[in-house]
Amino acid sequence: MSPRFLVLCAALVAGVLALVPHTHADRPVATLAQLGHGLSGQGELIGNTPRRILHFTFDDGPHERETPRLLAALDRFGVKATFFFSASRFASGEKRNARASEIARQVAARGHAIGSHSFDHVPMARLSPPELREQLARADAMFERVFGARPHIFRPPKGSRNNALRAMLKERRDTTVMWNVGLADWVKRPAREVRETFFKVLSRNETRDGDRGGIVLLHDTHSWSVDAFVLIMEALRARNCELMASGEELYEVVDSLEPWVGKGALARAKAPDAKRQRTLRARLVQRCSGSSSKAARVMP
Ligand SMILES: [Zn+2]
C-alpha cells in the first residue's frame, strides 16, 4: 500500500468522522463547580442570614414548557439560580418530558447550578437504608449520563430526611440544601399571591429569627411560579429604590450558595458588605429615578 493511498484513506476517515454529530456523552456538559463540587461536605445549608441576600432555587424540573420560560426570565434579570432536578425525568421512556436532558443541558449552558432532587421524588424519610442507596445510585447514574458527573448538592423532596439519609449524604460529602423562604407554590394560585407570600415570609422570618434574606424555593414546573419569579424581581427592584432613598441595606440577589458556606461567609456577616452595597447603589441610581410611584403600585 502506498503512503499516498494511506494518507488519502486517513483523510477520508477524518472527513466522515467530522460529519458525525458529537454527542454530549464524550465530554462533560456542566462544570464541576456548577454541580456543586466546590460546596461539598458542608452538612446542611438552611439559608438563614441577617443580611438582605437572596438566592433562588427551583425544584422538580426540568419541565418542557416552563423551564425554558424561566431561563428567559432569569437572563432578563441577570440572575443565576440553582436547579434541583428529579433524575427520573431523564429516564428513557419518560413520556412526560422527552426533551428533559436537552433542557437540563441548556440550564447548565446558561451558567446555572445543578443539584439532585433524588431519583423519583419519594419522601426519603420513609425509605430503608437499601432503598435510600438505590435512590441515590439511580439518580447519580442519570446525572452522570446527562452532565458527565454527579452533583454534590442535594435537596430532599419535601425536605423529608432521616438519620440514615443524613449519614449517607455525609459519607458521600454531599451538601444538603434546604430553604428558609418557601412560597407554597405547589398549590395552584395567581402569581401575585406567590409574590405576596414571598414578602410575608421575609417579614415573618425577620420578626421571628432576625433573618432578612435567604434561600428561596420555587418550582420550575408551574406557570404561576415562573410568572411569580418575574413579579418578585420587579418588586425587589422597586423595594430597593425605596431602601436606597432611606439609606438602608439593599437586597442583593446572589448567583450561588457560596455566601452561606465557609469561614467568614457573607451570610453570617454582622453588617452589610460595604463594597457590594456600593456597587448595587451605583447600578440602581438610573433605574430608580422616577420609579417611586411604580414601587408603591407593585408592593403588597
Ligand atoms: Zn420537589
- Major beta sheet summary: 6 strands, parallel
CA radius of gyration is: 22 Å
* Unique bound compounds: zinc ion
Helix content: 40-55%
Helix count from the secondary structure assignment: 9
Structure overview:
It is a single chain. This protein has 300 residues and is an alpha/beta fold. The protein is 44% helix and 11% strand. The chain has one domain: Glycoside hydrolase/deacetylase (TIM Barrel, Alpha-Beta Barrel). The chain is built from nine helices and nine strands. Strands 2, 3, 4, 7, 8 and 9 form a six-stranded parallel sheet that branches. Helix 3 links the parallel strand 3 and strand 4. Helix 7 (223-245) crosses helix 8. The longest helix has 23 residues, at 223-245. Residues 13-25 and 295-300 have low confidence and may be disordered. Zinc ion (ZN) is lined by residues 59-60, 117, 121, 157.
Task: Present the secondary structure layout.
Elements: H1 3-19, E1 44-45, E2 53-59, H2 66-77, E3 82-85, H3 100-109, E4 113-116, H4 129-147, E5 153-154, H5 163-171, E6 175-177, E7 181-182, H6 191-209, E8 214-219, H7 223-245, E9 252-253, H8 274-288, H9 292-298
Parallel strand pairs: 1-6, 2-3, 2-8, 2-9, 3-4, 5-6, 7-8
Helix pairs in contact: 2-7, 6-7, 7-8, 7-9
This protein binds zinc ion (ZN).
Zinc ion binds at residues 59-60, 117, 121, 157.
Please name the defining characteristics of this protein.
single chain; 300 residues; TIM Barrel; six-stranded parallel sheet; three-stranded parallel sheet; 11% strand; disordered C terminus; binds zinc ion
